[in-house]
Design a protein that fits this description.
The protein has 4 helices and 15 strands. The protein has a 10-stranded antiparallel beta sheet, with no helix packed on it. The chain has a 5-stranded antiparallel beta sheet with strand order 1-2-3-4-5, with no helix packed on it. Strand 11 and strand 12 form a beta hairpin. The N and C termini lie far apart (about 65 Å). The model has no long low-confidence stretch (mean pLDDT about 80).
Amino acid sequence: MRFLSDEYIKDASSSHALDVNNGSADWVAGYGYQLWLNNKSIGGYRGDGAFGQLCIVLPEQKEVFVMLCECNNMQTELDAIFDYMKESRAADDTDFEEAIALTESTFAMPRTDVPKDSIHYICGVNHSRIFGISLVPEGDRLVMELDCDFGKQRIVCGNGEYVFSSIASMCLAPAIIQLHRYGEIEPFNVYSAFTNENGVITVTMRHSDLPHAQKWIFEGDKLKVVPFCGGLLQTDYSLRRI
């Protein structure tokens, strides 16, 4: 069964813009709909979308590299990918397996002590329009409750594991969604876990359908949100414990 017509293939593989003045060798050979020829040191071609979505195809090496992220400087991203590809070709299987094991270990969460009592905060004025935050122990887990424009949102945080939650909140919207938002924000799906060390409670949230993650670090009367990828509306919040 054929899905694409001859006309579509001809149109998609034809030049639609003048790219010779783009500077870098990775951006002077573009054609069709967001398709580019890679520089000669790598070869092959790629399709890309805004802010870092890439599918790099290297036919001669029979390799395909797919990446979903949010990045304002795609040249830096490309350079990192190409360097990784060159190193992976030179490495043996043992090096590759060790690298995979190290990557997997970065996602592991240690078990930790659950706070004995609930902790409640009132938030100062913030762009995310969060009015209050509560950290509530529930068995072996911790629930972070956000009082915001979308009502009360519950983020269940696992202890030594990630737990699923579906929530709606401006503060969890990655920057790319904030810049290109049409209509109301839809709920986000996240997997969350927490740690409790030396009076500092850290909630780690990873989006299941977006290339983003973030840490919420509670220390005294301060909250700092650290994005792993992409910006957030606000990264520092003033709190008052009640």
